[in-house]
Amino acid sequence: MHSYRRWLPAIALVVLSLTWGYTWVLAKQGLQYAPPFAFAAERCVGGALSLLIVLKLIGKPLKLVAPFQTLGVGLTQVAGFMIFQTWALVEGGPGKTAVLIFTMPIWTLLLAWPLLGERVRGKQWLAAASTLTGLLMIIEPWDMHASLFSKFLGLMAALCWASGTILIKRLRATTPVDLLTLTAWQMVLGAVPLVVLSLFVAEPATQWTPHYVGILGFMSVASTAMCWWLWIYILDRVPAWEASLSVLGTPVVAILSSRLTFGEEFKVTEVAGIVLIGSGLVLLSLLSWAASRRNPGAHRDLAGEKK
Fold first, then answer.
1. Cα 198 to Cα 203: distance, rounded to the nearest angstrom
2. What is the pTM of this model?
């Protein structure tokens, strides 16, 4: 049982990467039926309602703990992230500009060291270097045709996600709060600015077809409610920088699913990037396995650091 529980964060990361990765394909399809900001608001409202219903059904507490800290998480990791991500898609299209949000691990790595005291040590740098180099190969910042403004918006989305990641780690380190309750309230508080924005921005009306309802249902329940809960669960068990690197499996899944779904050809740099990211993630897993073999009695995170 102990061995099984030790691998739960890794299992959660696999589920998270697969679900969030395929979400990019569904988002591209969903935007054919709904305008960008309305789509973001509808997705977050659906996610918030799903989490509140689950909390009620399983008897979890609905009380909002640490309201100001939770509001900060909701405004950065939900509202800010979704607004800048959607705005970047509007300004620059769904190309490499959107993928800029996956520079999030770089900002998390930089912020986690001074703010959380989470340092990258020894062979962990090899995993970090391999994974981040693979990310650059996929983004190709030297060959982006989108406007400078759309690139800025994509980077702001990444910074919002990284900031929310740091805020969650600090909150969980000082305040006992149920993970599912925290996820629900960050989604509720983050959805409010999105709803307000969708009401004030002039956009076409949403086409409520059965296909769109199905897409919105999956994105609300699975990719928003479930995945944000999994993300907080992972952050609660591994260093912020490591969780951020590990979630780079998401753009790999996004590229693979997009190419296969829409019949697009793979680029050499994309293949190289996927290999490098995969190598970095495998190295993180091997470091964890080696650490557990050296000291089976200690609980360690995915990269072998004592907890």
1. 8
2. 0.78
